[in-house]
Amino acid sequence: MKNYKLLIIGAGPAGISLAAEARLSGLNSDQILMLDKAEEHSWVIRSLYPEKKLVTANYKGMPAICHGVMCLQDSTKHDTINYLDKAIQKTGVKVKYKQEVLKIEAVGINDEPQFIVTTNNDKFQAKIVVIAIGIFGKPNKPDYPLPRKLKTRIHFDITSFRTTGENILVVGGGDSASEFTQFLVEMGNNVTLSYRRNEFAKMNSFNLESIKELEKCGQVKILYQSNIEKVDISENENPLVFFKEQEYGIDEYDRIVYALGGSTPENFLKSTGIDFAGDVPDVTESGESTTPGLFVGGDLLAGKRGGSISHAFNASRMTMQQICRSYLHCHVSDHFKYEKGIRL
């Protein structure tokens, strides 16, 4: 079994940028391995982002300031995927896909960490392991049951269907809810947005202005302070939504799209040996867990602040600095500041 110096779990922006930082720090490409359970890198961007959605580098209006080797400003989905494609190619790091990690076993002694990583297909050995799987383990679902017969009519993203001229209910109040709504309106659908509060507090300024403009022009109906009690099946076999508020009553829609965010994959992290402090991973600022040599990377370090591509890139730099300083005796150069692209 080959012993890698660095094994990265997750081939998204966090994992890819960590591989880039590692290469720039002096590690050879054959000393690094990246694993991902999907068939391609950047699964979240590929599967949850519509083609016309702008991939924003910042989060909640915070500036996208770059500190590491990789940097990306607001880009189209296509340009973002291309940028990450080129980054993988330039690093020369091998990515093994369809590898779902089942177990991470610490087998090192004292200050010499060593891990055996077991997947559904293979086993790998590495001195350092970084879990960089992103902040969303899976989309959040409502606390009321959803009829199984409506599974083709209820969605948690907008890439799984294409339609026009339908009455669609979007549920949520963050950036994804606004972006889903904008996209569905642009595709010629009649969209209603249900939000449980009386004003939007989680959207960035661009998405907030966009949704307000759509409301002002009568292109979207917003149900403020609305709460869904249950979803049933109508006579037309469409979603029939029962609101708790009498003013909204009962209404039928062709589809429901939930944009309720995602949950940190807590159970998976705990199973790999990551301790938690409350509901967040118990790690240092650089992402090292209570198990020496086992790190958490990317947006998982952002906690309740929420993550972003820029944060994932910058966190990779901090993580690699700690790995070099404590374990691999490499050096992350301070002389590389790039506005665009990766240079290796």
Description:
With 344 residues, the protein is of the alpha/beta class. It folds into two domains: 3-137 and 264-328, FAD/NAD(P)-binding domain, CATH 3.50.50; 140-258, 3-Layer(bba) Sandwich (FAD/NAD(P)-binding domain). Helices cover 24% and strands 24% of the residues. It has seven helices and 21 strands. It has helices spanning 13-24, 43-48, 77-91, 175-186, 205-216, 266-271, 309-328; strands spanning 3-9, 32-35, 54-55, 75-76, 94-96, 101-106, 115-119, 123-131, 138-139, 154-155, 167-171, 190-194, 220-223, 228-233, 239-243, 250-252, 255-258, 262-263, 276-277, 280-281, 294-296. Strands 1, 2, 5, 6, 7, 8 and 21 form a seven-stranded mixed sheet that branches. The chain has a five-stranded parallel sheet with strand order 10-17-11-12-13. A hairpin with a 2-residue loop joins strand 19 (276-277) and strand 20. Helix 1 runs parallel beside helix 3 and helix 4 (175-186) crosses helix 5 (205-216). The two termini are 29 Å apart.
Q: How many structural domains does the protein architecture include?
A: 2
SS summary, helix count? 7
Q: Supply the helix-strand structural class.
A: alpha/beta
Please report the total strand number as a whole number.
Answer: 21
Please state the CA-atom Rg, rounded to the nearest Å: 22 Å
Main sheet summary = 7 strands, mixed
Looking at the structure, the CATH topology of the largest domain is FAD/NAD(P)-binding domain
Average per-residue pLDDT, rounded, comes to 88
**Stretches with pLDDT under 50, minimum 5 residues:** 335-344
Terminal-residue CA separation: 29 Å
* Strand composition percent: 15-25%
The CATH class of the largest domain, by name, is: Alpha Beta
Order of helices and strands: EHEHEEHEEEEEEEHEHEEEEEEHEEEH
Going by CATH, what is the homologous superfamily of the largest domain?
A: FAD/NAD(P)-binding domain
Shape: elongated
